[in-house]
């Protein structure tokens, strides 16, 4: 029996790569980029392999457990790779590859330390997806957040500094809440391993559980801040609009980390039918999620800036996810996961696209001169050099249209399929769970209206940009910028075409999630290897 | 002991919240520092209060968990202190950066109207 | 041999002190500790050499030093009680706190440092700085009665021994 | 004898704590920045004494390290503060 | 309170006395810090805490542990040495900072001019703004 | 085959899109060829469809949701397919000549083909969801077509309007179809069609009906959604001809016919559709009369005719369905030709304004003749196709409401009157003297531009004269596919004898002529430019104001429920932290009574200090930052001592070190924050709003503090659960190899945490460094501090190295430099013993870094760096690599990452020495901590160098760049 080292690779690869990148000077940019790129490629391959293993019965129960430092589960830190986390890893790697590729020509060249920070960000995200230990989750959250602070600030200018003041402050407070929640959970259950917590909750007396619930509530606030639930997510549009495009694209994923953790936590801790804690907080999630949808939709409608629009659309998608999680129905979760992937790709592609689109409105030279005058040394990247790709306008408009369709959930792209999946699940609940109630109707109506609102605002923006703009010269786009956007969009097309296998996979993932007992058995049952021959007495 | 600690944590946390809600970035920084003291203490006491029972298990003795302080919260607090230190440094630098480039130390990077 | 020592053990005294510190800290006197202490004692001064432009002090008259220390200890105890008395029982407004100038003739940096240590450790006096124009020590005295006495005492009882210790070259 | 020692330890604890309290008062009322710096430094020293007394009270040497560290490092922040007051910046 | 009962009387008495003395001195020092009217007087208060207070308590500790552990425990010396090396720096720097701050701020009553070593230069006001309070 | 049918246009669209912008004939040829091919395919299929067979083609897509791709062609679908393709072909031919040389033609044809494909998709869908997909695609492509002349504001506006309205409808349709699918249990069209009774009996029938109707009516431009259609006339005329005759608007009608078997036959059906249809046909035809734009007139006439069809469908009798299908076909034919005729006029004269156009019959007699025939068909003149279906309509209206209630018939006649009137108005442009001053000199169009019109007009006449032979079979097949066999009795004949419908027709014709004459004579029809009576009924205006109101409402909502200000966000967070547990948690934790006996007075005294410092800091932080910093430091001391007191010496050490480094750090930062001076008269007048805000914040702070205190107290007085810590205590020594359990936890049990934690440190250091490289100091703080400029200070002019070497810092410098090796030893000491006693890599690293920083403080950056190259980046890199590499080493032994091992060395003289791998791991921690601390502090310290080098009056742009940290 050998440990499945593959599971920890998504954390180690970026860490090692980042460590190697730190001492390299900016002059060796090409080498740094190559290293970084190789690492992301490695992560992509790892994620694919993990996904294959999770789905092909390589592990008992299709859940891979890795005991870091070889300590059995509730005591040591266990990393858990199941279908969902493998998928999230893949999504991360794909997005990272796109963002990194996009940053090749310009964004990674300005400032210093883009690459190590990027790698550390990936390490944090991957770790957060993998870990099954509450405090370890905190630490990986911090890795992720700290790297994101650095990356949001990347390309020093006033707007970014303003935005990151907010971003950092809010997230620091959220981190404190995370700690408070974790501490409360530890104090009441005496353990940090999620599966173990779940196990212990089921045996707790109703009288004891108040403090635990308080802890979980505070903890959830931290995640919900990350996931930008109303009213905790006001930082998001500002930050998205201010961050440089590749970073903003990665930020999209980070909101999803919040939702992911909520999903995992809730299904694990409160997914059981019985027990004193069953069903805790689901209503709050549903209604909070729906409020978030309303808020995000209103935001989309009332803003003119594309960056903020993308931010609000991320809020809408976050709200949808939270409501879906809170609705507590496995088939809906399946569709919600599909929606998660689709909307992440769409919003990320849109964020990358915005910068390219902006080149239509204000051709590069003008904007450069303007900023140079205002802030003599801001990190505004050089105009792309060399030849641009042909048919730039056609690409931009097509890509924009695709983004708009996906964000609005119109056919024929993945956005529609996701929406359809959710509606179908809402209308046709599994046997025994009863008919759709007023909450379901409201949710459905909200999702439809939000899609519509997204459409109206995207349309307004698109018409104004593509049709009403006085075009001087067609924008100059680099292949390295066009390719990632195209890939993200093509992936979304692929998601539509291959919806069936994807839905099947997600259905299995969701079934896993809804079986907390299985996690407990697998995670706590994984034995540590018999100790290295001698673990002697200390002197 | 318990009551004093609870009150102490509460007061420090409250002072931190008050500062956190102030408009100037340095106030927010100080607030964050105070809050992290409170939170660290809070995590720490989650292992309950132990006097003179540091979690050392010297060689030659059989450790009796019931008379030693809970080491886990201590380890967690250590990590939290380190991370708190790092984030304080970061916030500080962002704060002075923002002060320089925006010309104000208001947390929003611009003076409020009126 | 001597060259070797100079090469690898240029700061013998400091190395010894550091080794002693290590042993004291570890409260151990076994071979491993001594070895490690010796290694550290030798290596650390070499590592920080570049940051020590003055090198390390060379002391000549250990007996004088001991005498000085004994005197200082007594003085410290005495002033301690004086200051305590004043804090507890005197009318604080009538305490005559003043700065005084003490012309100095000691030049050796370590000697100066030692002097400042002794003066500062003695309650009731605080070393402020050396006024550069006439190389005078600016000293703050908690309860000044007689400026001349202070200058005299410092010159005679503190400075002179220190000059003997640090500045007398064989 | 044991009671005498216990009493004296308790007395010492009270004294040190009251001393810390007085320092804290000075810290609060100021009035000038250098007063506060001085008070903070004294607070550290008193803290060190507290560690030592606690060490005697609990009869363990674990507290000794903290005392060593306060003695060696505690002054750094004071020096930094003083230099800041004096020069306006601490590293030139 | 583990070690206390097995302390022999020859040690307990001096330890107690040293503790009481040291603590009292420390308290007096702090009292001085609080009660003395000007900074230049206040700075002399803590000095006794550092020298005599700390010295006594260190001695007590040494004695105590030597007695309880039946071996020579003198590593408190390290603390003493470090205190000796750091305390002068602190008082020197604070003192100097205070003097120059008061001179710059032209605080006549602060006591910086006592003894006439330092004088406040009045005409300097022209042109330069008074330094801000930090 | 069906797949090919649907795909062909899309393929053509792709090809056309790839053609260069300058090409003109090629895209048209591609489009034509593709359409022709598809048409041939479709006609070929009639062989089977005509026999009542239904063609299927099925692809699995999402069987789990009952969502397969099904292409299904029955009679109805066939009719629509041929209509779409046939008229499409003609329109494409027409467009070839119509489009101007300046327009990007490939794009046009590409859009056209894409639209055609979507339309075919709608028509051929055998799955409701798939239908919705194509439905929305038609919206998208029609948006592109309407907005084709994107530089024109009206085109953009029209396109957006059409798109928005039809998409809203589409979303409603989606909802309706989903519910329908839920009722039936399948989205498959066959299943749905077969489940009519089940659907009609279901509770949710009404919502399905309303939602589907919303979709269909908005697409078919029915009142009250009709307003988008006239605005869509901003599109090029071929687009209008295509969209508004045979395709886009007919999609709605198609849907209603399609779902007729399932949904019709209830009063709700009749009332909803009937009301909408009647309103539409009256309003549409009335508005049409008063349009001055020829296309506008046609647009309203289209609306009215669609209303007619909807009314027919609403009636619900099988015969009316036949009539509806028939009229759909007829309308497509004559309306397409009319649009194209208008296009010709527009193209050749440069205007479509009926106020200007006059006597075109003279200039283009042939076109005029065609247009007159077509408009006669539109007016329902006998012997033309329009007459037949209108006749059927009249006869069906009489069925509604029995024998007493004639309102529907009156409405029908009124509509007939109006339609005759607007047809007359339309053809009036051909009569009279030829207008002068037209933008262009009118003449006949090119031969092939007129050809499509000719075809269609011939079709009008053929169908009008011999209906049974021309379309009888087709109509029967189509009707049969909807109604099922047997078909109701009907006869497609021109002459049914003198009956009421004929009287109505006659009345309508006569009335129409009369009405037109009256209007022309007395109401100044030829001059007026607004619709009488109903001009207030401006749907477009309503649409725009709705959108505006929506945006404003959204902004309002955002203003009241959102904020961009940090303070409010933090307030919300804090309130949430207090409120959410109170609101959500049931049962609330119980708070045990406070026992005063449990109060330890000494410990309380300690915390009186801590709390006082904290509160003092809160009070002073605004104007006295330094004071606040010192006070926070006071709390830090107390915290540190608390850790010490409560058996956590490791924490105390760490807290102490962090405290020191943080102080230094903030002092370095404070240099760059210009002082905040309390404004004079600060306390004099504080506005009540400020007090209110403070009270609010105070309340929140109080609540938060109390909340946390309560939680702490409740926890501390509750029974501790069995924790996992016992495991650590028991195994730390035996298996972790260390006596200090906390340290073993950090480097072994939970070493993974520590690895991530040092990564956080590294990240922050890198961020700080990157940020400070581009740091712009505040303008007020660029100059060197006043302290250094003051004449009072003799050291003002000395460099830091001089100060330390011989100046005023000399004596302190001696101490501080002398201390350096001692600090080094202490660092090593704490590092070495960490595993067994308090200490460890972190504390050691901080001590080491502090020792170095002290040197910086003494002698300045330049001096230290001239003596010592620190390269903090390398420390960080090596540290991470060491820690990570130690973990990876376990792989070599076949163990998971970070598994600890111990090397045993048996050295002479020294005996056995154990070197645990955790020790190496800790070394990595040490390296990272030193590296990061140094990087952060030194990067900050370097900023001073820049300001020193800058001239006193330096501005932002003249500040020298930061010195690289080596």
**Helix/strand structural class of chain B:** mainly alpha
Fraction of residues in helix of chain A: over 70%
Largest sheet of chain A: 2 strands, antiparallel
Count of DSSP E strands of chain A?
A: 2
Q: How many DSSP H or I helices of chain A?
A: 20
Oligomer: heterohexamer
Structure summary, number of beta strands of chain B:
0
- Could you tell me the radius of gyration of chain B in angstroms? 19 Å
Mean pLDDT of chain A: 86
User: What spatial order of strands do you see in the largest sheet of chain A?
Assistant: 1-2
Strand content of chain B: under 5%
Q: How far apart lie the N and C ends of chain B?
A: 48 Å
Structural class of chain A: mainly alpha
Could you give a short account of the major beta sheet of chain B? none
Apparent shape of chain B: elongated
N-to-C span of chain A: 32 Å
Helix content of chain B: 55-70%
Characterization of the model:
Chain C contains 6 helices and 3 strands; from the N terminus they run ααααβαββα. Chain C has helices at residues 2-8, 12-26, 31-47, 62-89, 109-121, 147-167, and strands spanning 98-103, 125-131, 136-141. A 3-stranded antiparallel β-sheet of chain C has the order 1-3-2, with helices on one face. In chain C, strand 2 and strand 3 (136-141) form a beta hairpin. In chain C, helix 2 packs across helix 3 (31-47) and helix 4 (62-89) runs antiparallel to helix 6. Chain C starts with a helix and ends with a helix. The model of chain C has no long low-confidence stretch (mean pLDDT 85). With 134 residues, chain E is mostly helical. Chain E is 65% helix and 0% strand. Chain E is elongated and about 65 Å long. Chain E has one domain. Classes of the chains: A mainly alpha (539), B mainly alpha (114), C mainly alpha (170), D mainly alpha (92), E mainly alpha (134), F mainly alpha (966). Chain D: The chain crosses the membrane at residues 6-25, 37-56, 62-86. Chain D: This is K+/H+ antiporter subunit F. Chain D: It is a multi-pass membrane protein. Chain D: It comes from Massilia niabensis.
Features of the shown structure:
heterohexamer; E: 134 residues; mainly alpha; 65% helix; disordered C terminus; F: 966 residues; 3 domains; two-stranded antiparallel sheet; 38 helices; 4 strands; elongated
In terms of topology, how is this protein built?
The complex is a heterohexamer of chains A (539), B (114), C (170), D (92), E (134) and F (966).
Chain A lengths: L8 H13 L7 H27 L8 E5 L8 E5 L1 H20 L11 H17 L3 H20 L4 H32 L4 H9 L6 H18 L8 H8 L2 H26 L11 H21 L3 H22 L2 H32 L2 H11 L17 H17 L5 H14 L10 H30 L11 H19 L1 H15 L2 H10 L14
Antiparallel strand pairs in A: 1-2
Helix pairs in contact in A: 1-2, 1-4, 2-3, 2-4, 3-4, 3-10, 3-13, 3-18, 4-5, 5-6, 5-10, 6-8, 6-9, 7-10, 7-20, 8-10, 9-10, 9-12, 10-12, 10-13, 11-12, 11-17, 12-13, 12-17, 13-15, 13-16, 13-18, 13-19, 15-17, 15-18, 16-17
Chain D lengths: L1 H28 L3 H26 L3 H26 L5
Helix pairs in contact in D: 1-2, 2-3
Chain E lengths: L8 H27 L3 H4 L1 H26 L6 H30 L29
Helix pairs in contact in E: 1-3, 3-4
